[in-house]
Amino acid sequence: MASKFNLGGAAYVKVGGRQIALRGNLKLSTEMEEEEGVTGQDGPHGFLTKPKMPYFEGDYSTVADISIEELRALKDETWQVELNNGTAYIFSNARVTTAMEIDTAQGQFTMRVDAMNARKL
Known about the structure:
Helices cover 5% and strands 59% of the residues. The chain is mainly beta. Strands 1, 2, 3, 6, 7, 8, 9 and 10 form an eight-stranded antiparallel sheet that branches. A two-stranded antiparallel sheet has the order 4-5. Strand 4 (33-40) and strand 5 form a beta hairpin. The longest helix has 6 residues, at 68-73.
């Protein structure tokens, strides 16, 4: 059960009813746009608003029950990310967007998943 004092720590990533072995360094964003300041040689001019894809990324353990090839083959899937503080997010129409390289010394790989939509539950 989540406590109001849990700030971070444990997290869980799931797709298709399967939990993926999250090692750590999980970061996520559900933002659909970002703003960037624009300046010229004469000073500030204003802001640009650009569309942005929601995403999450982290380090995962290389375990026998799922392969990089299986993860790469998942297209337009719904992924769920659950945080230790009780917050959960749904990333829909999502897919792996990074080249996943296995660090054999550490038994892990880094994976980023971009989504067409994301929302907090």
